[in-house]
């Protein structure tokens, strides 16, 4: 795209939604899984996914032009490295993220102008509930969300564990830890460390079997609660990954003050977040910031904004640790 003219660059931006909807439809129809066994005719694929053969061919042809599939002979398609990542059983499958981004998220993004011109939460305006309340009442969407977060966070987790020495702590609380994938990886790497998962009761209930399957359940404490009300004490360090970015400053302050109330002076608070750089350089967090605005109502922040935020809650930001992924670890000390 960098070699394209300004006109062509803008055309690609304008038509970007077409690409995301092609990928979504490919995932919804299960085409990546259907092509795992080898090149397959459009007619056989259409029968397998209950599609109109001619219209399906047009979809596949468009997807192949993007590299998602390849047409090996007339009306016969095969998998590519891109489509393999959309297979449901791929170790780092992006199928759940595709389904999530193309459904509720896509609808909320259609309200971007309204969001910029108001102070309303556009997801709530569209679906009638705040995002996390919506998930609690829609188990299928919640399962897709969990799987999507795992696919995103998998690479991040390895980077976090490489960048920071968690072995210095005996018990680590993961506040808002979701399905527990981060704690599972951490406890697997550091067998002497114990973990505490803190999240809403229905989230903790969904996560419990994951710790059993990973063989670390005996080193785990699972606590269902609400971090807007209270954070349990007793851990040596408190960690939150992509939690504070979900909330505005007022609600983030409440969460952080509840963490501080549970901690002793000198204990560590570890926030794993995108830290927005200055300037015009491309950075994924700048786009994710708009998702936070539209869906949960939060925001991505700069280092200075994080420094001020934690300072108002009884912490001092000590350092920002970069990883080999776009995320950073903000290490603060309770004062």
TrEMBL record:
GO terms for biological process: methylation. Residues 109-316 form the O-methyltransferase C-terminal domain. This is Methyltransferase. InterPro entries: COMT-like (IPR016461), COMT_C (IPR001077), COMT_dimerisation (IPR012967), SAM-dependent_MTases_sf (IPR029063), WH-like_DNA-bd_sf (IPR036388), WH_DNA-bd_sf (IPR036390). The active site is at 245 (proton acceptor). PANTHER family: O-METHYLTRANSFERASE CICE, PUTATIVE (AFU_ORTHOLOGUE AFUA_4G14580)-RELATED. Keywords: Methyltransferase, S-adenosyl-L-methionine, Transferase. Residues 11-86 form the O-methyltransferase dimerisation domain. One of its GO terms (molecular function) is protein dimerization activity. Pfam families: Dimerisation, Methyltransf_2. SUPFAM superfamilies: S-adenosyl-L-methionine-dependent methyltransferases (SSF53335), Winged helix' DNA-binding domain (SSF46785).
